[in-house]
Known about the structure:
By secondary structure, this protein is mainly α. The chain has a single domain, classed as MetI-like (MetI-like fold, Orthogonal Bundle), CATH 1.10.3720.10. The chain has helices at about 1-35, 50-85, 85-100, 105-120, 120-130, 150-175, 175-185, 190-200, 205-220, 220-225, 245-255, 260-294. The longest helix has about 35 residues, at about 50-85. About 35% of the residues are buried. Pfam families: BPD_transp_1.
Amino acid sequence: MIFTGLSVGSGLIIFLTLALVAIFLTVRSLPAIRDSREFGGGADAVSLWEFTAPLVFGTVFAAVLALVMAVPVSIGIALFISHFAPRRLATPLGFMIDLLAAVPSVVFGLWGGVWLVPKMQGLYELLNTYLGWIPLFAGPEPEPPMRNLATASIVLAVMILPIITAVSREVFLQTPRLQEEAALALGATRWETIRTVVLPFGRAGVVSASMLGLGRALGETMAVLMVLSPGSSFSLHILEVGQHNTIAANIASQSAEATPDVMARLIFTGLVLFIITFIINALARAIVARSARA
Length: 294
């Protein structure tokens, strides 16, 4: 009875915490909503759409780019550790991946701002010259420093890579051994076994790992703040400087000196980020449940 009560209470604490956070964000953002141009404010009132929409665009754009770069690499590393590397190499490599996930974000921000930004100049010039017909790499010739969305996305990809790798590795290790041996006995190669047995078995786990990484990328603050030159546009040109910003980085940069009106708008953007994260996690759970039923 005691154990049951403690278990149920611990579970309810999670829902209570989420509810309190949602209530706090909603109540503190009400002044910004009430005084906005869209909800009854005057013609000279601040538009919440114009204030929030570019930040939402930059946040989602950077996170999706990071996910696109990180997921294939993470799956490859996880497969190498779980099915290809000898045990003497797989064990320390797994420890290194786990340790990389514990590195503070400010360290990634320092690495990106001090080392990565100068190194990307040549690559960005090549992309702009030869692939400028693609909207992502179009625009004027990149000029240093390379504090653009592309660099921020690379830093985010490095940050979420160990999370996705660690979870995917554990999922791949849970693949039933008998199924792998049966595929090999039927004449399948190692890659065919992975493609037909391991990857289908681990699909739901990879989706969950990707959503965990996406959640961190959406909410990352310090690394983006230290690497990205802020802007406020809907530009698809990731090589241009001063075009994008994220919700978390914007809150961190403006909250210290914000007036009550500005703080209310910042809290409103935090509420939007909270809703986006909640929706993404709900979609991930639906995808995982559907994969499990299949």
